[in-house]
Fold each of these.
Amino acid sequence: MDDQGAGQEYLRKIITTLAVKNEEIQNFIYSLKQMIQNVEANSGRAQEDLEAEFQSLYTLLDELKEDMVMKIKQERASRTYELQAQLVACSKALESSEELLEAANQTLGAANHHDFSQCDDGSRLPPVAQGQSERRHEPPDGGFRSGAAPAAGPHLPARMPDEDSKIDHYVLEYRRTNFEGPPRAKEDQPWMVIEGIKGTEYTLTGLKFDMKYMNFRVRACNKAVVGEFSEPVTLETRAFMFRLDASTCHQNLRVEELSVEWDATGGKVQDVKAREKDGKGRTASPANSPARVVQSPKRMSLGRGGRDRFTAESYTVLGDTLIDGDEHYWEVRYDRDSKAFGVGVAYRSLGKFDQLGKTSASWCLHLNNWLQVSFSAKHNNKAKALDVPVPDCIGVHCNFHEGFLSFYNARTKQLLHTFKAKFSQPVLPAFMVWCGSFQVTSGLQVPSAVRCLQKRNSTASSSSLP
């Protein structure tokens, strides 16, 4: 019995030891699983950060590439003009030399045959050879006057050879300006050059209209000569140029021109009113900014004032220029770490407590990164989830008359969503951000890809929201 009891006790110890080891192994397996999940999460974040960093580098490289290509083109154009001018001068000199040589040969031939004609003043001139009257070269006045000595050499009107007389291409130059009328001799902006234009029509794309006017001039070129520039033409730009109206923003938003950054410290409304009254501080109306050279009649001359500033949880700021017609396009790049971000349009009557998309007075795309990620289109307190990749730069296309408000991936021009609405009054660009920042780019042309997609996909992608 004692041996049996001792054996059972030994088995119990073994079982206990195995149970403890089993628990340790389970804990170790759980720890390994946790480590795997952490590694996957960390690697995913690192990959996203790396992709974002590479994307920013690509963007920077693209900008540097465009600048370098433009400088190379301008330098090439300048050098080409200089060399072509030298070529023209050499061609004229060669032509004059050939004419002199031909005249000298004719004179020498006539002298050998002792066939000179007598002029009124006693000088002798070679007669025109028979059969060569069509090739006669006369001075500009049509011939020698009676009693006048012949010129030292033939004077020929300049003309290009027949085979080079056709225009080979055109060169277009343009520059931005804030001054109406004839182009000034001195401008801050340089002439930009477009070479090798074969036809008589050309469309400039990708322009940023951050000034009110543009100067244009053109010249024709062929293989032998470069023509003079045409009379410059000044055109008024039609792009939608606006800034952010700091007098409308929530006190937790810090606005500078077209940039907005979340400021958790905020500011007291009384201090804001005092700064606005003194014309100082960051909340002064953009209409009074010295940076504004020309004010559009659509631009709001009076802000909403400190009393009507967005407040509570409406972290909103509006643009300062009304949209009441035509079609316009702008882009906004936001910080991916923003907890919430929204972009769209709103009526000026949007209440100071109203959030974008929560009332019938605003339309927007809304990104929520807080707790659970969501990307949706919002209007009149209704939301439609969007099953598309979330871009870091969004293009907004507003066709006021046709009632279309479309959002695009600004890089790929992929259509994200389209609202079909009947705007009952002018709208303003509208933005919101919580714990983040964004940068707006205005004064852009409507991209041709956006125009085509608008026509093709407006019906299929129209919002089901009222």
Amino acid sequence: MSQLQVAATLPTITGPRTKVHGLQVFVAMACKFCPAVFTKEKKLREHHGLQHHDIPVPQHWQSCQAQCMKAEGAGSVRKLWQVTGDTRVGGDSRKKILVDDLLKELDQELKTVQVPTDHHLVSPWLLTTHWHEWARWFRKPTEELCALVSPPCLSVPDEEQYKTLAKSIQLYFEEAVSLIDTTDELVLQRLNSPYPNKDGISNTPFHKHMHENTLKQYIHPVICFITMLLQDLWMIPDANMVILKLDDMLQEGSTDQSHIVHQIHLMLLAVWTTPWSKDKHYIIPDPTKSCLALLTLNQDGSFKHPKEVTKLIAMFEYCMCLTFLKEIRACASADTNVDEAAACDDLQPFKGT
């Protein structure tokens, strides 16, 4: 290598610079204080906190285009740099640039969720859930909102580290399902009773699905949910540290599935046992309901019919029961003075919320 004068490492490329022919172009956001570029706002905020902690966090980030050596892999090959478009000069070109920018802003505005001013045009379902107002509050294009709950895209540099996430989540819920056969039947009946104080305890115990492949379908919304929590910032005071730890484990490429599975359990338990309450700043503070709203958002800014939401709710409820079952069994195993019924008592208030 040295005789041929070939560098042992790839060069470090910084931007802005012209596009490199043949490399994929990504929509990204640029740091205002250094050449750093990221495709996710969360990553940019983390960078700002580490590298520019003495400067207030900007309210808005600069949109840009970026490239990297390779979307997959690790290290410098995935580092993004900002690229510029074709150079245009002259008065007419500058006017065209201004017109293009205005049209782009208008196009983005039209793509955001539009809220009718006449309540007669809004379905009773949305008037109850306020999902349309919440989505409008983001002031983001609909496709960006939908992307928040999309499974990880391995061709995007900032998401490649999540390639094993779906497999880990499936393993987590398979472990929970395996506990059903050895759990007290009364506990399973209570798990299958959303409102036992109001409606009594169900005679039907919580049970496995008839077909094994059904579990894969039921955990899909949870994969989207966990991806949403990992890739964006949410006001979850009691769970943020747990979420960040899971994110760190995935970014470091941890191969210890037992630790990852345990961290997934801690994260879901923290989110699903937090009593969420509305306030003037957050229309839907519960991230699970936020995810449900985004999963039912259509590309045209409308929302799916309530009957199409029912199955999604059932999927979330089933996975919640599996998480609670895992916690019940863990508590009963860890403390000889706590049996499954007592552990179930502690989680009962969060059933049906």
